Amino acid sequence: KGFFIKPIVFINIKDNIKIYYKEVFSPLVTISSFIIKEEATKHTNNIFYSLRAAIFIKNITYIYNIIKKIKARSKSTPSLCGVSINSKSLSGISRELGKARITAYITVKAVYVNLGNRL
């Protein structure tokens, strides 16, 4: 049925577990839930690679304050999903998502043909 590998999702794991601080090359997602926003930013910033943080919050007035404090290379909220982001970090090598990601695979090629008197 194709090459789809179902991701493994870990919910509310402790930050001393190896998958939390080591780079794992597999379809793996960790989801953590917090009540206190300072606890969330501290927890997120303790991750060494910190490529992406997706933030889902009930009170949108706090979102910009939280985004400024999180050190992750890219941050997203439900309304920002799909926007091209920079993932150049210890692990990422290019942009992700959006039109800019597609153009990373495109090389412009120009071909000049001398048609002489045929025009």
UniProtKB/TrEMBL annotation:
GO terms of molecular function: aldehyde dehydrogenase (NAD+) activity
What UniProt keywords apply to this chain's record, in alphabetical order?
NAD
Question: Biological process GO annotation list?
Answer: polyamine catabolic process
In what residue span(s) does the Aldehyde dehydrogenase domain sit?
A: 1-111
Q: Which InterPro entries match?
A: Ald_DH/histidinol_DH (IPR016161), Ald_DH_C (IPR016163), Aldehyde_DH_dom (IPR015590)
Q: Which family does it belong to?
A: Belongs to the aldehyde dehydrogenase family.
Q: What is this protein called?
A: Aldehyde dehydrogenase domain-containing protein
